[in-house]
């Protein structure tokens, strides 16, 4: 990220363009779910659950359910998934050449995703006359929220008063939605 941006670009402060209304926050997960599921129905479980969590939080109607889903239930599911995968995977099945290749391919994909995001951020910076910090482009990979935190960290190293985290979460969430759509596409193509 530092190799592809200048100190001046990393110091660009982004301002909130306008406040987002509660109605927009409620309609966003509903519209995204409908549009993505119409385009690619096999992504319905992935995108639907992601957007259901957002709808719980933003509606404010089911506060206890939103709190449970974002804390206790999430931790329980992670523990159960981790335990079940860990208990059913033998070392011979996991520690092999194919696994190493997948990890290396994932690392290469993150590198190219970050490079592409920063370069697109630079293009948008030029188009907008310096209103967009190119660092937020690196958050387009779907590592939520770590990619956004890295953009924030690199931006705050250049200028400690620079706050990019919430701006970086936009591309971060877009990366998650894109990844879910890509996963659904592969599932449809390969019949999984």
Report on this structure.
The protein is mainly alpha-helical and 192 residues long. It has helices spanning 7-10, 22-39, 44-59, 63-70, 72-88, 91-94, 97-127, 146-158, 165-190. The protein is built from nine helices and no strands. The protein is globular and about 50 Å long. The longest helix is centred in the middle third of the chain and has 31 residues, at 97-127.
Features:
192 residues, mainly alpha, 71% helix
SSE string, helix = H, strand = E?
Answer: HHHHHHHHH
Instruction: Report the mean per-residue pLDDT as an integer.
Output: 88
Tell me the β content: under 5%
Q: State the oligomer.
A: single chain
Number of strands: 0
Number of separate helices = 9
The secondary-structure class comes to: mainly alpha
Poorly predicted segments = none
Give the % helix.
over 70%
Approximate shape: globular
How many strands, what sense, and barrel or not for the largest sheet? none
| N-to-C span | 36 Å
Radius of gyration: 19 Å
Quick summary of this structure?
By secondary structure, this protein is mainly α.
Question: Layout of helices and strands, plus pairs?
Answer:
Elements (H helix, E strand, L loop, with lengths): L6 H4 L11 H18 L4 H16 L3 H8 L1 H17 L2 H4 L2 H31 L18 H13 L6 H26 L2
